[in-house]
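ok so I'm stuck.
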Amino acid sequence: MRWVSGEGPREGGTDLFMALWGIPFLIVGNYMVWGRFLVDTWLKRRTYYGVTNRRILILQEGWKRKTNWMYLEAIPTIEREGTAMGTLWFGKKYPMIAGRHQKTRSISRFDVSDMPVFADIDDVDGVQRLVQELRENVRKNSSSTNVNVPGPLSYSGRPNLLR
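replied:
not stuck anymore, here's the structure
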């Protein structure tokens, strides 16, 4: 190898800086390529879904305990993905990438946010039918008795009730 300036390579300084500068890019790149699938698998094992005669419930015990629930009569639409195993969105399924000031969803289906999502569930057709039937029953009963349900229609947070 021949050096044009007559000097050899610098000892340590530039090489160390470049190695430290490159590490965050390697970590983020690996997460985006394959790490997010490992995180989703880990979260999937720690996410529980429930349907009652009044609400749908989500409990996730990942890094933090997260909960979300929505009254059945507050569900605007149910969007479905999959046949035997699939995902149900209880509301509009937003795109992952959108223009400025437009609502987007997380890259992970297991992200517990303001819109409840039942991700990767078995018998997605049966669960969808169950929720639709219960929602129709609640709407019929509430319209005939004119009873308003107090409190929020959707909640996402960390209540102390589940401890």
